[in-house]
Putative membrane protein
Amino acid sequence: MKKLQLYSLLFFIGLLVSGIYPKEYFTWFLEVLPAVIGFAILAFTFKRFQFTNFTYFFILIHCYILFLGGHYTYAEVPPFEWIKETFNQTRNNYDKVGHFEQGFVPAMIVRELFIRKNVVSNKSFFNFIIVAVCLAISAAYEWLEWAVSLCTGEGGDAFLGTQGYVWDTQSDMLYATIGAICMLIFFSKKHDKAIQEQFQTQ
């Protein structure tokens, strides 16, 4: 429980700091809103379903990625400006980090739900369904970005973050898919261990 209290404190610290003189307040609001909604959902459902500290840690990392992108806008995050200039890239690619996490973290969340609620009985389709769900989430987020852009016009351009890249939407979904697959390949065993250690002792 102490870890969760620390994670909650770090969440609010990150949120508040990101909101101090951001590049654009409207863009900041749009970028951090998913983190705030996610926190509210996790808090509301906490008594009915508690994730592992392992999963909460990666959720917090994802939130900080959103906070950083919201503060600077995804097109102007300083370290990736340096990468852009050093490697002669045509755009700031920080948004790809965000979309990678948009697949990685949901894969961990969905995987834990599937395991502990025994949602998928046929293990042959287990990983495929997780990746498919993550891709669906990514596609839905692209629809949201599209809707915001249509409703707000130029005000939503920074939120959309295409930076003139015609294949931005498709590459965003690709990075989310890669993120989900990487989670399943490299972190499944550690995730299983975290689930066993935390909930077998309760």
Q: What stands out?
A: The mean pLDDT is 92. The longest helix spans residues 168-199. The radius of gyration is 18 Å. Residues 2 and 8 are 10 Å apart (CA to CA).
